[in-house]
Amino acid sequence: MDDKKGKVLIIDDDDDFAEATQLTLEAHGYQVFRAAGPDEGFVLLRKEGPGLVILDMMMEGKGAGFIFSRKMRKLPEYSGIPIIMLTGMREQTGFTFPGSIKDPVFLPVDEFLEKPVDSRLLVQKVAQLIGG
To answer: Does domain 7-130 have CATH number 3.40.50.1390?
Structure first.
């Protein structure tokens, strides 16, 4: 896999989840960078130029991931980078999103997965989006 496609940026304030996901993806040959929030995420997005972003929706006590995805999609240099959005919202609130993304402007992501996510499924989705 080429350098950019092999890079994955995880933006999640759950350090345990982010570390476990990093180890899983690294075991499958991906180079992984982690950010604990949106500000650090944009710094690493610019610095590392990942081929894919794994993004938690509910950071900083609110939908910071949702806001991040919309800002990222508005920037031409990052608009083509696939985003996998993760959330534990159903577990926390009982609210769930539909199985397929209906409005790419409202929720501009390529995949939407509920936490806890099966590591095999996550690796499969990463491979589908950027190869590997």
So the answer is: no
Please give the Cα distance from 28 to 123 (Å, whole number): 8
End-to-end CA distance of the chain: 6
Tell me how crowded residue 113 is: count the other CB atoms within 10 A of its CB.
17
d(CA 59, CA 83): 16
DSSP designation for 17: H
The one-letter amino acid code at 62 reads K
Single pTM value for the model: 0.87
In tens, the pLDDT along 104-119 reads 555 778 998 988 899 9
Q: Supply 128's token pair.
A: 């589908």
Q: By the 8 A CB rule, do 83 and 69 touch?
A: yes
